[in-house]
Amino acid sequence: MNTIAVTGGGGKLGSQVIGMLQEQKYDVVSLDNHLSDRIHCKQIKVDLNDFGQVVGSLEGVDAIIHLAAIPAPIHYPYSYIYANNTVAGYHVLEAASLLGIRKVIMGSSESSYGFAWAPQPFSPHYFPVDEDHPQLPQECYGLSKVVNELTAEMFHRRNGMQVTSLRFSMITGPGDYRHLAIAKPETFKPILWSYIDIQDAVTACIAALHAELNGAIHLNITGDDTLSDRTTEELLKSFYSEVGDLRKTFQDREAIVSNALAKKLLSWQPKYSWSKQK
Description:
Layout: E1 3-7, H1 12-23, E2 27-32, E3 42-45, H2 51-58, E4 63-66, H3 78-99, E5 103-109, H4 140-159, E6 162-168, E7 170-172, E8 195-197, H5 198-210, E9 216-221, H6 232-239, H7 260-266
Parallel strand pairs: 1-2, 1-4, 2-3, 4-5, 5-6, 6-9, 7-8
Helix pairs in contact: 1-5, 2-3, 3-4
């Protein structure tokens, strides 16, 4: 692989992924709906909802990291969010199939499990939440991520394309931690106190690019600890006491969403924590 396309290359995560790819001497092309002055690579202004534009912009590319999306069910009509995210995902994978691109990394989300944005809040079936937990979204954004993962599975069945969907938890950075309500555990209950430092999100993208996997794989990308100053056992007793299926004993502030499979398959390890960067 020599040339990597990053969709959403002008965004918070995409721009940092591009920087690391360039450090590793890849040629990079950014596909975004706007041009950015914070990245220094070939940029193509493209509407991912236009299939012809997607095909034309990906010609000559060896692999794709697809990060472009509306990242939450807010600020746009729900129908537009769903259509934008799913059509863009399909177009990227269909174009890759036509052009013979064999590896695609897809930005997915832990919102696909349904807890984060649920109009009718509900509890996980068990803890820790791993990739086998049912995906039960009640809104357009989480559903769009489920559909994209199913689309990835279809393309693998069609032609053996390797697609790795990274279910990112809330992406944060060193400048964010001082503003987060760490001492108010009710704030992050809906996301199970789950987060990923942007530096670790970047390395997960690169690790997925390097990994030789077979299939359409879905992986939780989360940190090793929770966004709380309480122990994990305290959080579960206070906020999820009705969940009786505890499949491990949690130590200290250990994460409630499991990243074990990503660590195993990607040879990846998160390194950063809010507790060390405030």
